[in-house]
Write a structure and sequence with these properties.
- The protein has one domain.
- A hairpin with a 4-residue loop joins strand 6 and strand 7.
- Helix 2 packs across helix 5.
- The chain has a 4-stranded mixed sheet.
- It is globular, with a radius of gyration of 17 Å.
- The protein has 7 helices and 8 strands, in the order E-E-H-H-E-E-E-E-E-H-H-H-E-H-H.
- By secondary structure, it is α+β, with helices and mostly antiparallel strands.
Length: about 240
Amino acid sequence: MRPLRRTDRLWRLIALTAVLVVAAACAFGGPDPQDDPGASGENDATRADGTMTVEEFRSDIDGAVQVAEEYWTQRFEASGERFQPIRRIVAYQREGEVACAGQGLPRNNAVYCSAGDFIAYDVNWAVAAFRQVGDAFLYYLLGHEYAHGVQVRLGIRYDFTIQQELQADCMAGAYLGDSVRSGALTIEEGDLDELVAGLRAVADDPDQPWFAEGAHGSAEQRTDAFFGGYERSLDACDLR
């Protein structure tokens, strides 16, 4: 996936909300620390998997944030409201390096923290997903966490974690699908397959009860929620 360049288009649990995926810790192996894009002295020309560079990883992260901010700004403006972008996006490498409401964040995860209004992600885990699944996964990753920030801004709360998470999947699908349809984002060959593979990788284990705290949904549920939003926009996401 690729956003349009600026020259082509104008820029575009409440304390600890939305751990994207616990099960994904086993789905993606971490890269060698010397390949970590967060490490000092990293050469931007280093090949990640023979086809993707560290610079591409950074560019895709920035592009995903750019498109998400533009998308939600436009949606809020259409409703006569002002959208406040997420304060910051933080990459971390070690467990507990970044904290949300006094609680250290775990490895192998991405999180929206409402207490500080920021998104944080384990850069080693994200790079591994980037290499094994593809760049489209990064757009989903940031879109999902951005959706949790939007849920907080809209005051949306559910009784069960799975409801919150599947709605965020739907909202991530809507932001991507609508951005493709508007021309703000270009979808490339294989991107949809990458999204399906990523959604399956971050799904709950089959024996995970749907009502358990932290449940995110089965592979089928997460895929259905995401592509419901992708195809039918926010109308599919039960926003209220």
